[in-house]
Amino acid sequence: MRWIITIVIALVAGFAGAAAWDYAGLGPDRTREAIMANPEMLPEAIEELQRREAVARLEPVRDEIEEPFPGAVLGNPDGEITLVEFSDYACGYCRISVDHVNQLIAANPDLRVVIREYPILSAGSADAARMALAAAQQGRFEQFHNAMFEFEGLTSENIEAAAQQAGVDMERARTAIEAGVFEGQLQNNVFLARNMGLTGTPAWVVGDQVLSGAVGVETLSAAIDEARDS
Length: 230
What we know:
alpha+beta; Glutaredoxin; 2 domains; five-stranded mixed sheet; 5 strands
């Protein structure tokens, strides 16, 4: 069946039909017959193509993606395995994933989780992201990250309450936010995400895998194990 995948990938990727047929050693009629007889192979082929494209986009920016804003790290900051999460505090699936990440950290002492603030869902998302980076600057990122997801709604009152609960120095945080200290980081996160083709949250990068959505502990754990073994 692998030759079918090869043909479909070539076709989906935009190669000329004749080139794909010559490559596989088949004529157009047999190629069409093979694909029509095995349509279940199409999703697998397209998924493989998307994986290859994601890896190709990842490689040039891998180091930058895995380098956190100082302090915006969960788990072992010196861990050998890095899991990157693009996250938005307005995202319900990100809220669900908080427990998943905590489970992964508990099960993997060598895991470093880099949180990249990707505030795309609301105006409050950006305000919460700025406060998260202010908290990271003060060594209170984990506390704020967890506290913010406990609140319903990204009102200014809730953001400040989460920051106070996390022990953030509010005067120092407000000064940094008003000075625009974190704008470059947020803009760069958006650039990196869009360059990677990430349009929603949460999105994950670990090893050579790029995953989208609240994919769950098992899927993330398998990706971490694969990255560790590679």
